């Protein structure tokens, strides 16, 4: 008889059928006599919560995942908003910075520039070749806003993949965290005797590209069903490798495309509210990007579709967007610009550089201010108040990670706009009591997008990831708010609903893939939307409620339970 359980994320709506677990293999004496699974779950949470420091919580959960990944994912799904700040941003940032010091066990694939010419044999070392479906690949060169961490970037790949498992039900054994080691330009790590990576400066782009060509080819041969997510490459290489491989392999860049999609989604919901309050049409929004790297420009590119879907031409849409970098307003007459900034460089301004954010705000008069600058506190009280003076409901999204680099806090944004702000940040902030009500911050983080986008791309066996698929993921997310969430003033759904949302996103992504004919699993084309949603849900891996007795007895038997 199958066991029917109510999954933790469904509020009792969805029923989950699970195959019966193999009978436990108790070996009398190897486990405590009253070990009970439910009590053990509570024990795990008690152990987690007893840790004072977030990094200790991270280490505890990392060990729990290794020892009993069913329990880890079960608790993760049950306590999503408590777990994500630990296994993901902000704590994963610290875990990266301290990776070489806290390292305990191998947990992914390391491929270094020294492996050039023999990458194939390194990939073949992976124990579960046939299972591989999704890999998050970083080179550690720009981890969150923390800079070049070299091989210490591995936990970002691990963290993102944990969210694939928790958020989209990807099988744990189908995930491959990869950190590429091209050296590091951070002297602190080169001088650190415990540093785990190559002790050399980063190689030049030509050599890196030769490596990447070999790497991508060998990945496609070794893992024919694999989708690759590029993560936290420095901006120049992020754009370079996305363009180089996107039509050749199933690959996307999370910082450019995933971030673009998640911010477009939150912006759509915010812009509707803002326009309703101001009486100004949606097409009149003016969006200022503070930060013009891979994330800033990626979001700007994605926001173009907001304006074009509203009926503007490409040229008109581009004119709704302004960029600011470390030199101030980005405009063509300023001089030589990096390639990724040229498209949005303003052609209608030719005066002296405008460097100060307050002066830029005065000049642009934006309705929305997006922070992707890695600059903590850049949205000062004066800047936030200026946004409030310009707009009845200003849109302010400080999106830099981790939380210490956020351009402003939620509390400051609420206080300095007298509670009127439409807010989303990259890392989580707590809800705030405000004048007898509660204000909820949005989390505009690509974690809402990549699990569903990846799941859809994997299930449709896509040959490539198209712009339309990314846009579909964004619109799917924007439309996923429940009436209760709208009532609460949320711009993004509650993270506890991530599985339901990922399934909806996956369906939208599969349909977009079918329209572009990049789907190789063409059987799905004949399904109705309802059938497709059921198919997607049916494919999701679920943690089992395993008798702890069995788990621990297996461990005592020396059976390897560790999964990624
Ligand atoms: N919320 C989310 O889901 C995501 C958030 N992010 C966050 O976005 C941030 C940026 O990432 P990425 O674009 O790749 O990084 P980059 O370092 O490539 O870009 C940073 C940008 O900010 C500009 N900048 C730096 N300092 C200042 C300053 N004082 N004033 C104005 N502009 C400044 C830089 O200018 P210049 O070009 O002149 O150097 C550059 O354009 C990171 O913190 C990252 O964590 C990224 C992906 C997803
Ligand atoms: C969230 C993310 O991908 C980043 O900050 O880089
Ligand atoms: Mg990233």
From TrEMBL:
Required cofactor(s): Mn(2+); Mg(2+)
GO biological process per UniProt: malate metabolic process
Domain Malic enzyme N-terminal: start-end pairs: 65-246
Cofactor note: Divalent metal cations. Prefers magnesium or manganese.
Molecular function GO labels: malate dehydrogenase (decarboxylating) (NAD+) activity; metal ion binding; NAD binding
Active site per database record: 88, 160
Residues annotated for a divalent metal cation binding in this entry: 231-232, 255
Keyword terms of this UniProt record: Metal-binding, Oxidoreductase
SMART domains xref list: malic (SM01274), Malic_M (SM00919)
Record's protein name: Malic enzyme
Source species: Mycena pura
């Amino acid at each position: 008889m199958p066991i029917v359980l109510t999954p933790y994320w469904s509020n009792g709506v969805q029923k989950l059928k699970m195959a019966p677990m193999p009978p436990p293999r108790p070996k009398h004496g190897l486990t405590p006599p009253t070990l009970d699974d439910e009590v053990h779950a509570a024990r795990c949470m008690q152990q987690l919560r007893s840790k004072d420091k977030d990094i200790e919580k991270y280490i505890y959960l990392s060990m729990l995942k290794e020892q009993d990944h069913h329990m880890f994912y079960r608790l993760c799904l049950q306590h999503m908003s408590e777990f994500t700040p630990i296994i993901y941003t902000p704590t994963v940032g610290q875990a990266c910075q301290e990776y070489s010091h806290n390292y305990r066990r191998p947990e992914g694939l390391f491929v270094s520039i020294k492996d050039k010419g023999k990458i194939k044999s390194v990939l073949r070392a992976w124990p579960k070749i046939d299972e591989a479906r999704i890999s998050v690949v970083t080179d550690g060169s720009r981890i969150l806003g923390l800079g070049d961490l070299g091989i210490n970037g591995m936990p970002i790949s691990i963290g993102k993949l944990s969210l694939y498992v928790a958020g989209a039900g990807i099988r744990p054994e189908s995930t491959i965290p990869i950190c590429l080691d091209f050296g590091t330009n951070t002297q602190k790590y080169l001088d650190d005797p415990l540093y785990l990576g190559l002790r050399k400066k980063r190689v030049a782009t030509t050599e890196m590209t030769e490596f990447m060509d070999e790497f991508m080819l060998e990945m496609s041969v070794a893992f024919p069903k694999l989708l690759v997510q590029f993560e936290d490459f420095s901006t120049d290489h992020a754009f370079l490798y996305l363009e180089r491989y996107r039509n050749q392999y199933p690959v996307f860049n999370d910082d450019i495309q995933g971030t673009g999609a998640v911010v477009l989604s939150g912006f759509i919901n915010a812009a509707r509210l803002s326009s309703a309050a101001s009486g100004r049409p949606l097409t009149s929004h003016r969006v200022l990007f503070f930060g013009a790297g891979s994330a800033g420009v990626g979001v700007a590119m994605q926001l173009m579709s907001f304006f074009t879907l509203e009926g503007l031409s490409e040229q008109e849409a581009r004119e709704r967007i302004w960029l600011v970098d470390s030199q101030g307003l980005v405009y063509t007459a300023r001089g030589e610009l990096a390639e990724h900034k040229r498209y949005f460089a303003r052609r209608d301004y030719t005066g002296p550089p405008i460097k100060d954010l307050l002066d830029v705000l005065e000049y642009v008069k934006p309705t929305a201010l997006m922070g992707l600058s890695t600059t903590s506190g850049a949205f000062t009280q004066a800047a936030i108040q200026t946004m409030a003076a310009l707009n009845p409901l200003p849109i302010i999204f400080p999106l830099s990670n981790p939380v210490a680099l956020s351009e402003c806090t939620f509390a400051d944004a609420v206080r300095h706009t007298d509670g009127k702000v439409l807010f989303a940040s990259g890392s989580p902030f707590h809800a705030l009591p405000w004048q007898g009500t509660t204000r909820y911050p949005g989390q505009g983080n690509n974690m809402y997008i990549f699990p569903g986008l990846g799941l859809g791309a994997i299930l449709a066996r896509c040959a490539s990831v198209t712009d339309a698929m990314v846009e579909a993921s964004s619109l799917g997310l924007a439309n996923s708010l429940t009436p209760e969430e709208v009532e609460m003033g949320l711009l993004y759904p509650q993270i506890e609903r991530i599985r339901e949302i990922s399934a909806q996103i996956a369906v939208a992504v599969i349909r977009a893939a079918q329209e572009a004919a990049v789907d190789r699993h063409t059987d799905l084309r004949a399904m109705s939307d309802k059938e497709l949603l059921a198919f997607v849900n049916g494919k999701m891996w679920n943690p089992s409620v395993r008798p702890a007795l069995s788990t621990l007895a297996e461990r005592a038997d020396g059976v390897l339970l560790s999964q990624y």
